[in-house]
């Protein structure tokens, strides 16, 4: 059996993502890998399965109702945020959900609807400027400060 093992760097290059993202996926178990001492390797077959799983598009449901005007507006806002560089990764969103932040996210949506966008953006930019970078530590189920 001739198994090809890829480095995290090779996987990152193929998927056009940062190497740190690949390590995050491996540690979280989203991407299957083999840890040899301190070094991660990904079988070619596991990478192909990972890609296939993320390319699968479900068949449209005949009973599915069309998007509401509110949903379409939310999608447009999201696209504008992405274009403007205001977004969080899916990993960050998952960490928020795990930390019970869904109700906080809903409240933020309510606040966004009440405050003029330019005022809210200025406020959020100031918060981001003062914030310490953190990441979700799944093993300890808490946020931890990211040290440079």
Taking the alpha carbons of the first and last residues, their distance comes to: 42 Å
Sketch the major β-sheet. Answer: 3 strands, antiparallel
Number of helices: 7
- Helix content range: 40-55%
Estimated structural class = alpha+beta
**Shape label:** globular
Average pLDDT confidence is 77
Order of helices and strands: EHHEEHHHHHEE
Low-confidence stretches: none
Strand order of the largest sheet: 1-3-2
Radius of gyration, Cα only, in angstroms? 19 Å
The total count of strands amounts to 5
> What would you call the quaternary organization?
single chain
Give the total of domains. Answer: 2
Amount of beta strand: 5-15%
Molecular structure report:
- The chain has 148 residues and is α+β, with helices and mostly antiparallel strands.
- The protein folds into 2 domains: 5-55; 69-145, no CATH class.
- The protein contains 7 helices and 5 strands.
- The chain has helices at 8-15, 19-28, 44-55, 69-83, 90-98, 102-114, 117-130; strands spanning 5-6, 34-36, 39-43, 134-137, 142-145.
- Strands 1-3-2 form a 3-stranded antiparallel sheet. A two-stranded antiparallel sheet has the order 4-5.
- A hairpin with a 2-residue loop joins strand 2 (34-36) and strand 3 (39-43).
- Helix 1 packs across helix 2 (19-28).
- The longest helix is centred in the middle third of the chain and has 15 residues, at 69-83.
- The chain is globular, with a radius of gyration of 19 Å.
- The mean pLDDT is 77.
